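Hi L.,

As promised, Terpene synthase metal-binding domain-containing protein:
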Amino acid sequence: MNIEQFDFMEHQMLYLPWQRNQDLLALGVMDFNTSQIVCQQELQHLESWVKDSRLDQLPFARQKLAYFYLSAAGTMLPGELSDARILWAKNGALTTVVDDFFDVGGSKKELENLTTLVEMWDKHEEIQYYSEHVEIVFSAIYNSVNQLGAKASAVQGRNVTKHFVDIWQDLIRNMMTEVEWRETGYIPTPEEYMENAVVTFALGPIVLPALYFIGPKITEYTVRDTEYNELFRLMSTCGRLLNDVQTYEREYIDGKINSVSLLVHHSGGSMTIPEARKELQEPIDTCRRDLLRLVLKEDSVMPRLCKELFWKMCKTCYFFYYQGDAFSSPEEKVGAVDAVIHEPLQLPLDLRPGLDLSYLHERKND
């Protein structure tokens, strides 16, 4: 938008000659076009992966690959972060499939089978697949974890695949807890719910492994530090509550509990749905502020670049959930996907003839 609305006659505040402002516009156009080509190539690779993994054959699964890739491309811009963007989008798509499998797609036996396979991991071949759907879901997780884990291990100079496995095992265990609550009719306290829900919101497999690809070395000491856990808790709590406020109606129909319905239930009928939604705004704001404060804190165990990834995911949650459930909508954010990945820049006609980019390429090569 800055490029398309750039008016170099109004940018004299930069104290640069008119030609230099035109150069800035030309450089912006060149950089955007180059980045967009990379985005298109990466998304094509991801779409091929979905087909190769047979995830498109699961009738219950929402296909949200483009949304996750948009959030990766929009927050991790440098070209050298390709592996981080790919991991972010792959695991985002996978967590959505798994979430849908636990919510609507899988029977109790299928979910127990998938849980056992993930728990066994290296010895999973000793366990039979209960169904083709279980095989597709587990194989996609297993292959992706091993491939991405090997890449991350090479980048970090130590084996981090076990950490990737641990993250997925935690997610599946906590999802099974929610299934057991649903099956038995157990209604947790808001505190019990949130302790489990910060994991089942499923940002762990997306953000935590991506930390290994963005540059700094991440030691085992770092991932065991309380700061690391607090960054994850604040990010996930903020995202979970934003989601709950916007999705309570659908989840109530589906027989699922969330923060809104729990507040109403435990109030003994003294609190209405609108009041519960309003009540949750304060912890959302508090988590957001505390997260930003921790990200900006000096003298941290976690490198600043890594801390910023938690903040970027928090902003992504606002992008999808601040004014509704745009994530579940098949078309609400399509325009943003197209603008970043597919559509060329819409420059005014009177600016296009003056943008000769060839000399800028020559300067870059020099």
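The chain has one domain: 29-343.

Thanks again for sending the construct details.

K.
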